[in-house]
Specification:
Blueprint (H helix, E strand, L loop, with lengths): L24 H14 L6 E5 L7 H4 L3 E4 L5 H11 L4 E7 H7 L1 H10 L4 E6 L29 H4 L5 H5 L5 E8 L3 H20 L3 E7 L3 H4 L3 H15 L3 E5 L9
Parallel strand pairs: 1-2, 1-3, 3-4, 4-6, 5-6
Antiparallel strand pairs: 5-7
Helix pairs in contact: 1-8, 4-5
Length: 253
């Protein structure tokens, strides 16, 4: 009798991807879907997907997904979790959404210790709208709105979200992973699993940042984009756990 060792999660739909070749969103989607299945959450999971490439999440996740206005996903997630406390809410956002127009919503949800998980995909650029500079764009990195490279004197410095929010009292977990290698994918899944468990246990707000490539808007092949990510993004956005309530250096509300 054959034993299946790998297959599609039930929490994913059998849809052909719309994402560009080499995009990390597909991997991030699958990790979330695998954990929804492993925790048995599909009947009460609710994804919140705002404007940006993340808005396509409802096409791939086989559970309820609500679209939110640009940057307002944490506010919608707060209302959903408070209105339906039995639900398991997953806020899925990109860097242009979470770290720009949605900064206030993110910080206040974190400070309140809202009981949902935020999955934050950081590819250092605005993807859906054509490659403009994002709050996470690196110094010297080119985009459609900084074609000579990001100049910190004119455009400020790239924001490290985990480091920014880690000291807020409502944060149960602030951690950063990546999807550039199989090893990092497995490590990122462990971080997501910890965030899921925190939410189930009511420990507070958890943020798992995922450093991801965007070959199309970086103007690179998928293979070159992975190399660039490792040589540049991971130097600025160091991987690891920045706050963990279970380790005694953090605590949810």
């Amino acid at each position: 009798m054959e034993q299946q060792v790998f297959g599609m999660p039930q929490a994913m739909k059998p849809e052909q991807t719309l994402y560009c070749p080499g995009c990390g969103h597909g991997v991030a989607h699958r990790l979330v879907a695998e954990l929804v299945d492993e925790f048995g959450l599909r009947d009460r999971a609710i994804g919140i997907a705002p404007v940006g490439c993340s808005v396509f999440a409802d096409k791939y996740w086989n559970f309820d997904v609500i679209s939110a206005a640009h940057g307002r996903a944490p506010a919608v997630a707060t209302g959903m979790k408070r209105g339906r406390p039995e639900s398991f809410v997953i806020c899925y956002q990109g860097d242009g959404d979470l770290a720009a127009i949605g900064t206030a919503e993110t910080i206040h949800a974190a400070n309140r210790g809202e009981h949902f998980v935020t999955v934050f995909v950081n590819n250092a650029i605005y993807g859906m709208t054509g490659g403009q500079m994002a709050p996470t764009t690196l110094i010297g990195q080119r985009s459609q709105t900084c074609q000579l490279g990001r100049d910190p004197e004119m455009m400020g410095h790239p924001i490290r979200v985990c480091e920014l929010i880690k000291d807020l009292p409502g944060v149960a977990l602030a951690a950063r992973g990546s999807v550039d290698t199989p090893k990092h994918v497995l490590q990122t899944k462990k971080l997501l699993k910890k965030g899921f468990q925190n939410s189930i246990d009511g420990k507070g707000w958890s943020l798992i940042e995922i450093v991801s490539p965007c070959p199309t808007n970086w103007g690179m092949t998928p293979a070159k984009a992975l190399t660039w990510l490792r040589e540049n993004m991971l130097k600025h956005y160091e991987l690891g756990i920045f706050r963990d309530c279970d380790a005694g250096n953090g605590g949810g509300a």
